[in-house]
Predict the structure.
Amino acid sequence: MLRTHTCGELRLSNKEREVTLCGWVQKSRDLGGMTFIDIRDRYGITQLVFNMKTDAGLCNKARKIGREYVISATGTVKERSNKNLNISTGEIEIMVKELKVLNPSEVPPFTIEEKTDGGEELRMKYRYLDLRRNPMKNNIILRYEMAREVRKYLDSIGFIEIETPVLIKSTPEGARDFVVPSRLKAGEFYALPQSPQTFKQLLMISGFDKYFQIVKCFRDEDFRSDRQPEFTQIDCEMSFVERDDILETFEGLAKHLFKKIKKFDYEGTFPRLPYVEVIEKYGTDKPDTRFEMLVQDITELAKGKGFKIFDSVEYIGGICAKGGAGYSRKQLDALTDFVRKPQIGANGLVYVKLNSDGTVKSSVDKFFSREDLNKWAEKMNGVTGDVLLILAGERTKTLFALSKLRLEMGKQLKLMDKDTFAPLWIVDFPLLEWDEENQRYHAMHHPFTSARKDDHHLFATDPGKIRANAYDLVINGVEIGGGSIRIHDKQEQAEMFRHLGFTKEEAEKQFGFLMNAFQYGAPPHGGIAFGFDRWVALFGGSNSIRDYMAFPKNTAGRDIMIDTPSLLSDEQLKELSLKVVNK
RNA sequence: GGUGGCGUAGUUCAGUUGGUUUAGAAUGCCGGCCUGUCACGCCGGAGGUCGCGAGUUCGAGUCUCGUCGUCACCGCCA
């Protein structure tokens, strides 16, 4: 070993010990007669001290050392005369006898400090330098600790981790695949998995009744701060279970992580809300339940009073912002602009202020009596000091806009505390979703999801109404995971493909291997997959998963550090029987 | 695919209605001084293809168009 200790561990109790430290130069302070160097590694920072009087040659050497040089320093642990109680090693320093430069460093392109001066792109290009910074380092450690706790917990209840292949087969459903050309079979391609879905089902058929895997998945769609081309799932599957067994098992996992990572015990069980109810109450299927502010339907109360806009719409609903009566005209106008943004899509905003002096002021006073407005307030649980914010229009669109407005108000009224965690299960998702573009149904979760038994009769009459045995785990408005009880019967699976518009031949070609397997004793099974990066980001207090991946890609799917995607040589293309067509 | 923001010293940014000699600030960097600093201090210095390309104009960092890069949102993401 080149070192006897790390830069984070020496204390007063080590006084007078002869030690050797290795690390990077955080900063040096040259005072002329003496020089201080802060040496940093993963564990902390320790101050080295050089004195002109003691050893002029060594001190001069120290003065020449720049930021981020890798050095080793041997010397004696001394008590500081001027202590720095802000850092854990601040009571001691190393009186250096021997100093080695293990490797010099160029001046880094941004400062490697708690708060860097570097912009996002630059930090990405020099990711290895950014990762030296404490906040980034801690994110990566958090990620590791969560992965470790996931493995510990699942292991403790009998799950085993099994790897599945990365070079698999492209399938038509779902997201676009990343593909890999085959050299040995010209014109043929592998695909990278969007998830190990079919493999984990096959493992159930093999008898591995409790499987999990922390695994990379790949989806070639457009990227966001919470979506990367390659991301990590905690992929899980169990046999001989029903929905509630899965929910209980993985609620246990979530509670384990809350306890071990966030140090709090979640009391009771997570709320479970059916999809239709959650849409009605929050306008979205991934509600942030850290705060109430439920959406209320006032269509019946507000229609037929002569206000044309309301009379002509399908749905009128609103939220009650507690303590919002103090909102100024300007603030309410800003909210109106907010909901009218094309991404939100509302036409306008009606407000009703329940003023603290007992008066009621609304933007529709002309059309509604005080009594009418009181009824709205009652329905929406509004009391003196609140403001009611009301949108009207087509039901689905209006609920969507209300969900965005609710989040905005939650933000403005500071109801979204980073250290509060509000999990819930959304259950009874629709099995099928009508796809206008292709004029057919597609699976809302995936085509292996089973329908609830009590809804099977709807296949013939109203497929859009069928509820699936599917569920999502949502925490603080973030979709953390989702899964379903799967189909394990060949006939039923074939039927599902038929409803999704596959011909028998297509289904056979794409998923024949799975349906064949169903003929050899497939156990009832189901599972769930969690977006590991999102979960880590949530616990880390951010919504950008990039900050929790060691080497992420940008929103264009580019790794600007290694500069890829990149061109292949003509030789490589030829070997792969590929020709690039310039668009 | 669509909408919008941003692009000016190494870095983060300012730069007024298009017009004042040499495009500024902070920080970083380099040199000098300094024996208890820890955001060290003081003095001095270097550092610019104003993303790129056209255009408008007597004159463009500033206006227009295109293009590239980047970020956010919509679509998309079973």
Summary: The first strand of chain A starts at residue 18 and ends at 30.
